[in-house]
Design a protein that fits this description.
heterodimer; A: 138 residues; alpha+beta; Alpha-Beta Plaits; four-stranded antiparallel sheet; two-stranded antiparallel sheet; 4 helices; 33% helix; 27% strand; B: 139 residues; two-stranded antiparallel ribbon; 6 strands; 27% helix
Chain lengths: 138, 139
């Protein structure tokens, strides 16, 4: 099973405060452990929402709003993509993440082809596989 | 520049665990994904199960606390994402505008932090990140 782990934004990340050397070192060690265990597939940090944009689809129009976005509780400042045998294993890994008090992560399982049932026809499946293979080479 | 396009479908915060997709919408979205790929822009993409089967880990007071979904206070949740590589923020926005999204959906564009964005001290502390990445391919 694959999980996306979202790191929730805080006042500090939204203000563009970069992590300390100690935090980066601890996080580097945690990532190293996850890679050694074959769990980590990807991980990135995101610039604050002030540099971002939102695109709203209202039916006819497409409206672009520049950041920052007020709902800090719902904003993300980074993510991991991990592969584990179970939801419990994913949670167990993330409980070990070296975060400061007040941090919050959200874990969400990634949809795999088999989750879509008949709606994901053999043709669509083939298209998806082809697309992923090509994208991986870019 | 790498950007994440975060898909935020309104209503997904209360979606049932066995939420079903509309095949016609999947077909439309696949055309868009194909266009991203053909333009050499697409790095990766994924869809996420609803938050009702997700979990949150918070670190209040430094101790991990696990809360199972759904999350009553959530007003917006992620339904999926694309990671793209484009020449500018404007190009990322132009791609998001082309998405065959429904009226209840918002796409948030966020630039990915690259090594060059950090100070020399931070770059030093984060050294080895590329090595971790090359060792973290899908198994």
């Amino acid at each position: 099973m694959r999980f996306m782990v979202m790191v929730k934004a805080s006042k500090e990340t939204e203000a563009g405060v970069m992590p300390s050397e100690a935090m980066l070192t601890a996080m580097g060690q945690f990532n190293e452990e996850m890679v050694k265990a074959g769990v980590m597939q990807a991980g990135e940090g995101l610039h604050p929402s002030s540099k971002g944009a939102r695109i709203r689809f209202t039916g006819k129009d497409v409206a672009v709003t520049d950041g920052p976005f007020p709902a800090t509780g719902e904003l993300v400042c980074g993510f991991w993509l991990i592969q584990t045998k179970s939801r419990d294993e994913a949670i167990a890994w993330m409980k070990r993440a070296p975060f400061d008090a007040g941090s919050e992560l959200e874990l969400r399982q990634v949809f795999e082809a088999e989750d879509f049932g008949d709606a994901f026809t053999p043709e669509l499946r083939e298209q998806e596989e082809r697309l992923r293979a090509k994208a991986a080479k870019q | 520049m790498r950007f994440m396009m975060l898909m935020i479908p309104k209503g997904y915060e209360t979606a049932a665990p066995d939420v079903e997709l509309d095949p016609a919408r999947v077909t439309e979205m696949m055309k868009y994904n194909e266009a991203l790929q053909q333009a050499g822009v697409l790095i990766t993409l994924d869809g996420l199960h609803p938050p009702s089967v997700g979990a949150r880990v918070s670190f209040e007071g430094g101790k991990p606390l696990v809360t199972d979904g759904p999350f009553a206070e959530a007003k917006e949740v992620l339904g999926g994402y694309w990671m793209i590589d484009v020449a500018s923020r404007d190009e990322a926005i132009a791609w998001a505008k082309r998405c065959p999204a429904s009226e209840n959906e918002i796409i948030e564009i966020r630039q990915v932090q690259e090594m060059a964005d950090f100070t020399p001290e931070v770059q030093e502390a984060a050294a080895g990140l590329d090595r971790l990445r090359t060792g973290s391919g899908r198994s």
